[in-house]
Amino acid sequence: MTITAFETRQPTVFDSFEERIEQLKQSELYREFLPVGHLAADPGHTMYQGRKIEVWCSNDYLGMSQNPEVIRAQLASTALHGTGTGGSRNIAGTSTTHVELERRLAAWHGKERALTFSSGYVANFETLSTLIAAIDDMVVFSDSLNHRSLIEGIIRSGATKEVFAHNDLVDLEEKLARYAPDRPKLIVFESVYSMDGDVSPASAIFDLAEKYQALTFLDETHSIGVRGATGAGLSEELDDHRATFVQGVFGKAIGTVGGYVAGPDAALDYVRSHAPGFIFTTAMPQAAMDATLRSLELVQAGTGMRAELNRKTALMKAELRSRDIDFIDADSHLVPVMVPGGERVRRVSRALLEKHDIYVQPINFPSVARGGERFRVTVGPFRTEAQITHFAASMQQCLHEN
């Protein structure tokens, strides 16, 4: 049959996706991805459309992904072992470096075992969903601002869930007290919450866990490398190691890729044996793990880096404050600059990029509540005082003009 030019296109299943994407754009929730090329020779900078620009929203808090020693470790390991493992952890993918890294991570956190995963998200999701489902009648108590990976892991487990108000010890205790003392319980929370930069009352939560016989799962994602004498996180800073499980990542302050969970030997051996996202995925390359090992060594000895990170963060806050720029002055290295309005935060972001060679990504719903749009600014220890002043002055100008 001949199709004429007058015949209309038949609807397809993909039309609904086009409609939903258009709805995202109309509601100001469509996400734009900026293609960049980070520069190893110039930490905190990237190439964009032939221009070198400053990146002020990276999770590479210490600039370790550009550290020459870490780069050399990965290059040397790649030359020796190749670019991939060729298998999952249970089929030829467990390298000697995986084993050594997990041993060091367990020792770092004072736990019996550690298990590495392809990302922090996978570490949270697979560990929580597998462990919780294995414990009959478990009740999970989850902070209301927990990361999506924690939330999804809990949901996947099918367990009863209680969401307590953010960092609210009274609400947490009220919810814990509703359940019988002998019913299995797990409290899931973070050490530093990335969108507001605030810190959890970890020791007080551990006290409640002991009082109500609950296990604890502490996500140290945004504390690893930047808090504690050796960078082991908030627990180390507080000298309080009562968390049953500690989760951490390599893709932020360590500057490589992957995530891990440290905790009791039997529990993590069970995860190793049952978690689909661990068993049925290709293991991370040994070269990446060797880079992680070297970075870990540098971070553990990096007291000076952490001190400089804190000094530069304080300087940024002072510069913003002097210009009456609204930001959350939290007790962490994260500086949320508040720019309410989905369209406005994007306009300011575009102006910073096009007029001042500054890249900072807009944060909007659902990462934050509507009306709470912001920039999550990070200030690496490698930043100069002149760069910090330039950033604050540029932000002031763009906020005024938009």
Automatic annotation (TrEMBL):
It catalyses: 6-carboxyhexanoyl-[ACP] + L-alanine + H(+) = (8S)-8-amino-7-oxononanoate + holo-[ACP] + CO2. Transmembrane segments: none annotated. The keyword RNA-binding does not apply. Keywords: Acyltransferase, Transferase. Residues 54-393 form the Aminotransferase class I/classII large domain. One of its GO terms (biological process) is tetrapyrrole biosynthetic process. One of its GO terms (molecular function) is 8-amino-7-oxononanoate synthase activity. Pfam families: Aminotran_1_2 (PF00155). InterPro entries: 4pyrrol_synth_NH2levulA_synth, Aminotransferase_I/II_large, AON_synthase_class-II, PyrdxlP-dep_Trfase, PyrdxlP-dep_Trfase_major, PyrdxlP-dep_Trfase_small. Its cofactor is pyridoxal 5'-phosphate. It comes from the Bacteria. Its EC number is 2.3.1.47. Belongs to the class-II pyridoxal-phosphate-dependent aminotransferase family. This is 8-amino-7-oxononanoate synthase. It comes from Streptacidiphilus fuscans.
